[in-house]
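Take a look at my tokenised protein here and describe the backbone shape.
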Amino acid sequence: MGGSRREAIGEMVVVMIMIFAAAVPFATSGRSVADDTAAGRRVLFDGKSLEGWTKTPFPGAGSVEVKDATIILSTGQAMTGITTTLKDLPKTDYELSYEAMKLSGQDFFAAATFPVGDAFITFVNGGWGGNVTGLSSLDGQDASENETTRSFRYAEKTWYKFRVRVTGTTIRTWIDGKEMAAVRYKGRRVNTRIETRRNQPLGFASYETAGAIRNVEVRPLTPAEVTQAEKPEEE
């Protein structure tokens, strides 16, 4: 009896050790890559108000309002937009992400102006009549003239997810997961067009078009993401 009892206890101990050993790696992996990547993520639009933003004083601007967790830029007589009031946003090694939708009109509906080190640039979506997407400006050439020019047709009433990564040498942009531009800006002249300078340091604008914006976030890039972003395209 005593031997059988000791064997039973021994078997129970082994089983408990095996359960614990199996649980430890599971608990460790519970901190997912998404959790780690999300470290430092900052929500810039709370879905309820324009806290942290102000209406950009463009001449002839349309109205700006928050409705259904969305910022609505109404059609203006030229441009309508918002500009951040925050002073502590990153200038490099960061990712900016947002979703935007064209409500009506024939031009850009949520062009994003953002920091590139001590300079600024604009990711134009649907400029010059609705199809031109790219960065304005590089070496004095705007999104319709430089190597980032892409033709992208935007449907109305459709949400698009935009993503921008800025490192000390490179800017990369995506729409719905498809890369639009990968350009090395170091050693080049980076600036915005005169029209969007009122969106600096960070802002959005539409041109004679109504647009909607939501889910605006910024986060620091990991060292691995910086390395990946700065790899030449051919790699």
Q: What stands out?
A: The radius of gyration is 24 Å.
